[in-house]
Structure formats: C-alpha cells, structure tokens
Amino acid sequence: MFRRYTFDITHVVKALNSIEVRFQSPVSYAAQQSRAHTLYQVPPNCPPSVQEGECHVNFIRKEQCSFSWDWGPAFPTLGIWEDVRIEAYNSCHLNYFTFSPIYDNSTQDWNLEIESSFDVVSSKPVSGQVIVEIPKLQTQQSYSVELQPGERIVKLFVKMNKTVTIETWWPHGHGNQTGYNMTVLFKLNKDLEIKKSAKIYFRTVELIQEPIKGSPGLSFYFKINGVPIFLKGSNWIPADSFQDRVTSDLLSLLSHSVVDANMNTLRVWGGGIYERDEFYELCDELGIMVWQDFMFACALYPTNRGFMSSVRTEVAYQIRRLKSHPSIIIWSGNNENEAALMMNWYNVDIEYMSTYVTDYVKLYVKNIREIVLAEDKTRPFITSSPTNGAESVAEGWLAKNPYDKHYGDVHFYDYFSDCWDWSIFPKARFVSEYGYQSWPSFSTLEKVSSKEDWSYNSRFAVHRQHHVSGNDEMLSQAQLHFKLPQHTDPLRLFKDTIYLTQIKKKRCIYRIKNFYEAMRKRQIIY
Asked: Where would I find the Glycoside hydrolase family 2 catalytic domain in this sequence (predicted)?
C-alpha cells in the first residue's frame, strides 16, 4: 500500500490481452507471514480485545489502523487503491523526478538539486539536453546528458540568479508562502521531449538540540529560515476508513480548518498512510508545517530479508515523492516504538530483549535513517516519537526513559487527573501528542444508529468505545467540574451526556493549550 509496483510486460503482451487481478485477504496474509516467522514472536500478536480488531498488522505493509486502533474501527481494506496504467515507450522513460532547494551557508546563496531516473530500453545511448527554467527568478540553464542503456540517474545542480531576490516560504502566521513555477524540459534523441512542471519553494529548517543554561537536558525546537517557530497543531490520521471516499473538497476543507483554528502544524501519524500529493500541496500553499512519520506504529516489526527489502523500496519511493514539499520539516521513523520497546509494553521476555533491540536498530537506524540521509539532506530525522532525540542517539538509539521531559518530545495522556490543574502537564521540551476523548455530536451518531442505541451504556456505545474504560473516564473527568445530566427522558439524557463530554474536552484542551503557549518562552527554567 505504501509503494509503487511496476512490472515489465514486454514478453507477455499479445494482440488481444486480458488482465486478471486476484486479491488475498490482508488479515489472512498477515497471519500467514506471522506464522512463517518461526524464530521468535514479533509482538503484539493482536490488539486489545476492546478494539474489536484484527491480528498481526505489523506483518503487512498497509495502513496499520485499518486493523483497528483505540480511536477507530477495523476495516482491513483490500484491492487496488491507486491508478493503474500501461506505459509504452521505445527508447527511454522517466521513472521519477524530484528536486531539493539547497541553501549554502558559506555563500548565502540558494541552489537547486534536481534528480531524475530514466529507464533506457534502446540498445544505444540516448543523448540530448535538459533545460531548466524558473522565469520569475530569471534563471535558465541548459545541460547536456547522455544516458546509457539500463536504469540511469541524472543529477543536475542549478545555480540561482544572484541578481534576483528570492522570497522564502514561511509557516502560517509568520510570513508568505511564496512559490516559483519551474519547468524542466528533457529533449532527447531529437524526437523525444519530456516536460515536467513544478512549483518550487525556498526555506531552511533546523532542529535545535542544545544545552540549556541552568537546566538539565537539551532543547528541542525548530527554526525555519533561521527563526525559532512555536509549533501549534494536531495529529493527522486518515480522513476516512475508506480512502476512495476522501475527495479533494474534503482535503481542502480539513486543511483550511487547520488554518482557521490558528494551527500551523500537522503530524502525519505513523499508523495511517503517506498522504496523497494533493494534501502536501495544500500544506505548502497554506503554510502548514508537516511532521512526517514513516508508517510504523505501536508495535515491533520483523526484519527478515523480504520485509526489509519492501521497506527500503517504500522509504526511498516516499522520500523522492515528498521531499520537494517545503511543508515537510522533519522525518520520524515511527510512532511510539522506542517507548513500546524500552517500557516493555508487550511484556517481552528479558532473554529476547537484545534481539528486539537489534531489530529496532536494524530497521530504523541502519536502513530507514541511512536511506533518509542519502536521499534528503535538507531535513532532520529522528528515529521515533516520542524520543529523547540526541540523548537517545547517545544511549545507542534507545533511551532508558523515552518520556524524559528534559529531552526530545513527549506524548501526554492522563484521563484520571483533573485537567483544570495545570501542574499535571509535563514541562517538556516539546509535546508532539496530547489529547482527551469526547463523543461526537448526536447529529453524527444518528446517521449510523437506531433508537435502541441512544443510551450512554448501550451495546452500541460500548462497542464503539475502543479505549479501555473510556466512557467511564469521560464522565469521571466531567463530573469534577459539572453536574452529570439526570433527565428521565432517555433521549435527552443521552444527548446532554455526549454534549457534556464535548464541553469537558474543550475545557481540557483549552487548559493544556494555554499552558504550553504560556511556557514557550520559559523553557530555560525547567
């Protein structure tokens, strides 16, 4: 689900052809792969029973939350979910085209690196010119190329016109999102022209991890174009359980809602999907920074040859597809897997711990990290979230306490303590996840339920709650400051109760948001 597949059909195509596609249940496939991994188990085998989910999702490279999550249903989809096409060519074909603006600190100049991959099928070399044009920057450069038969990479280094001022891309609330139209024309063998058009943005990003005077640990914050930026945002999970229902209008609505809510960041969470190009284009245009997880979440993963080969292809493909977007400011190897291993969420037998540590380093450090460093030198990379960042690296890539508030980022959830008491919130360097539950509005529930479901303790309500004791926790949190509804009318009681959970959540989010905004300039004291 996370990579592009290509097949050479040259030797099987006939005058009349038919294509037959056979699908295997992803649940069955995941189970088969798990059984085939006989040396040791790779936990967790199954999600908690309250999630009503499917097992062994860590053995299949598809949307991890489609097998269920603590916030969503199990819909393990199958089938073709992107366009399928036949491409015919006689001499050569452009496989991919990607680029990265590079800022030279020593000369304070902007340059551009362009990389293209070609499949040359002719028996003789293919030669010609590549013309790069960026009209508004008064930049036009031409390059001679010669491609030998086979898979070939063309790398170009474009120097920007120094007489023209380049406007940089800024996050929402900090400046404009200026972009420049670019065309790259490949004129090959006199009769073949391939033209690519793209919008190019210029910005730098730094992840600052430095000692803090008077405090233990290290800082953890971002600079965009040399300016410290306070990130305000949300985790982005898949917009629908069925991706074919996600329309352009929906993506636009949700993206503009982020800006309207005065956010400037979305974290594309590692249990979902790498989003489509349109999502990142919207983030570019709106100034929404993106923290991009790779799609590994809340699990240990196998590292056998076949799995690792697929992962390497996936990671390289996604970086090449996405790295030209200025909105993406960081790559993160996974969601919560450092914490899962070091806090022993899955009760791993101590005799196997070294094996899982070795697998972790092999997957996220020796493979994913190495590919990121080779493919994209313009962004920081961290192995996990939460992580202690540089301190995790110093401890061999896995920190003894990944939730140490003096390093890196933390995730914070506390459904028991009074959220109006600001002292419960961790005085952390960076908080990349926090949240509270609430029920959706009755108008939403009404569309997918019947009258017998309209009770807070109905089978429907219990079944839809995938977090252990989640419904009770919401009421316990609410009654710390509100009287619970006592109506004799069951429908009014249900409506008022779910509304109260929303009020409770709103107040909790308001408290924690204000706390971190107030503390953002005071990190040196804790």
From this structure: 222-439
Is the alpha carbon torsion for 267, 271, 272, 277 positive or negative?
A: positive
Domains (ranges, CATH) in the chain? 92-200 (2.60.40.10), 205-340+350-397 (3.20.20.80), 409-526 (no CATH)
Buried b or exposed e, range 304-317, using 16+ CB within 10 angstroms: eeebbeebebbbbb
Q: Would you call 433 a catalytic residue per the annotation?
A: yes
Active site residue 146: no
Comparing CA positions, the residue from 317, 246, 234, 232 lying closest to residue 278 is 246
Residue in 63, 336, 338, 391 annotated catalytic:
336
Tokens of 406: 């003096």
Scan for tokens 């979305």, then name that residue. 266
pTM over 0.85, yes/no: yes
Per-residue pLDDT for 524 more than 80?
no
185 to each of 89, 131, 146, 231, how far by Cα in Å?
18, 5, 15, 38
- Using DSSP's 3-state secondary structure scheme, residue 292 falls into strand
pLDDT tens string 167-218 = 999 999 999 999 999 999 999 998 899 999 999 999 999 999 999 998 999 9
Structure tokens at 64: 């991890």
3-class DSSP state of 357: helix
Q: What three-state secondary structure class fits 151?
A: strand
